[in-house]
Sequence to fold (192 residues):
Amino acid sequence: MDNKTKAIVAIAVVVLLTAIGGGVYYWQQKKNHTATEVPLTDSAALNLPTGNGGVPMLDLSNLPKADSVLIPILSKTLDEAFAASEKKDYAALASMIIYRGPDSLRMGYDVFNYKSNYEKSIVRITGETFNAWNKDVQTREYARAFEMPIPDGRSMPVLEVIFISRKSVNRKFFAFLEVNGQFRISDVTSYL
Fold:
């Protein structure tokens, strides 16, 4: 792959991650109409309930409702994707990632095709990123799953994954869409 193609692929990945972050930010702003207020940091000023032995408890009612039934289904897809990445089986990995690219008819409704050079490069970069996240990880925790509505009327399940190593704890949110009766990885972000 020449340097020009590498640069185009890198820019496409950055644009994809930026779009994911923007979508999540938009969803948060729409969900929380008081998002323009400056958050208070003094727990006494927040009037938080203290039903836990005097320790303030945060109000988590504005978070999406967790759906623990989805965790084993979504985590299985992620485990398969991480295993394919580790083995550098990019053809298998391509079949687990929702297509993002110039073909607007396939975007969000199909998976990557590993036969196309453009799609091959995106899948390889994604696989390398997955391998970097899993490097030196002692355990992966699938913390919670919840669903978010998306503009086309579908619902997007999201799985919070915590990568734990000796030196760090890293959290990612993996979003999924259903394609051909199976959940496939659609988006990944570090922040909700």
In short: The radius of gyration is 19 Å. The mean pLDDT is 78.
